[in-house]
Design a protein that fits this description.
alpha+beta, 3-stranded antiparallel sheet
Length: 168
């Protein structure tokens, strides 16, 4: 068996003392002048139309520097493998008209500290019209299933078949 100098060996932890005493610094400990903290209000529903978003109370908080919704975006979509194929670009940075999964981003907040960003998120009101949802691929592709994307027949965005090579 081959002998390695590092793999399979117990090595001393050069950062053990800092981690043990709590002196170690992590990215989350980093503070820079003018730094803002961002939070995203995410949907608690799996599928719903966004009827209204009210951010007025959150805007009134001193130290909240920006609040954006999906309607503040250009409407440009993104997705896996884009570019080159626009067929894969079916996601908004923040939901514009409806949410399509639990956790879909609806509103983004930037504030001077994390607690204030959390407070602002708590003050935002979103009115939803809940829609029927699907929870697995088979259910989503079934005849008559709720349409997650209006353009996708039976909720299939794209079908790719690759047949090449010689198995023999």
């Amino acid at each position: 068996m081959r002998e390695y100098s590092i793999v399979g060996k117990s090595l001393p932890r050069i950062d053990a003392k800092e981690k043990l005493t709590g002196a170690a610094e992590y990215t989350g400990d980093l503070r820079l002048p003018g730094m803002l903290f961002g939070k995203i209000l995410r949907s608690h529903l799996p599928h719903a139309i966004i009827k209204n978003v009210n951010v007025e109370r959150a805007k009134g908080l001193k130290g909240v520097e920006a609040i954006i919704t999906g309607m503040d975006s250009t409407g440009d979509k993104y997705g896996m493998f884009t570019p080159p194929s626009p067929v894969f670009a079916d996601r908004d940075p923040l939901a514009r008209d409806k949410v399509r999964f639990i956790g879909d981003g609806v509103v983004a907040v930037a504030a001077v500290d994390e607690d204030l960003a959390d407070e602002a998120i708590d003050l935002i009101e979103v009115d939803y019209e809940e829609l029927p949802a699907v929870f697995n691929p088979e259910e989503a592709m079934a005849e008559g299933a709720p349409k997650i994307h209006d353009y996708a027949e039976r909720n299939v965005n794209v079908r790719l078949e690759r047949n090449f090579g010689d198995l023999e």
